[in-house]
């Protein structure tokens, strides 16, 4: 059996003040914003920073426990991964069949990569 190839596309993190965290990524690290998602007329509730970080605003969040929301994982075989995940014991979450809870509670979002994208991402040597 040939296993699929995959990479972590983003890590979603809960933060109490999204603007302050966006400022850190912009002003300290020079990272731009890839995408924003906001309710009508409201400030952004979710922001995706270049470099694989998704910030989720949760003003009631106060501690380090529970900060991680989910891992977004790009795969080259979406249907195969979902089938193997179900057989392995992962359960689908209400958000959709590609949102899984692993035994132990870790949530992952499975995303279909475009053709060849996983190989390109895995070929990058961040220490080169």
From TrEMBL:
Keywords: Dioxygenase, Oxidoreductase. One of its GO terms (molecular function) is dioxygenase activity. Residues 7-125 form the VOC domain. InterPro entries: Glyas_Bleomycin-R_OHBP_Dase, Glyoxalase_6, VOC_core. This is Glyoxalase/bleomycin resistance protein/dioxygenase superfamily protein. Signal peptide: none annotated. Coiled coil: none annotated. It holds the Pfam family Glyoxalase_6.
């Amino acid at each position: 059996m040939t296993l699929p190839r995959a990479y972590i596309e983003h890590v979603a993190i809960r933060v109490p003040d999204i603007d302050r965290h966006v400022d850190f990524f912009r002003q300290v690290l020079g990272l731009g914003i890839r995408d924003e998602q906001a309710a009508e007329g409201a400030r952004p509730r979710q922001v995706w920073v270049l470099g694989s970080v998704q910030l989720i605003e949760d003003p009631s969040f106060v501690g380090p426990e529970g900060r991680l929301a989910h891992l977004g994982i790009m795969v080259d075989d979406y249907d195969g991964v979902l089938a193997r995940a179900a057989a392995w014991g992962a359960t689908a979450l209400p958000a959709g069949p590609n949102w899984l809870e692993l035994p132990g509670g870790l949530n992952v979002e499975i995303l279909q990569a475009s053709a060849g994208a996983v190989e390109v991402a895995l070929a990058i040597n961040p220490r080169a």
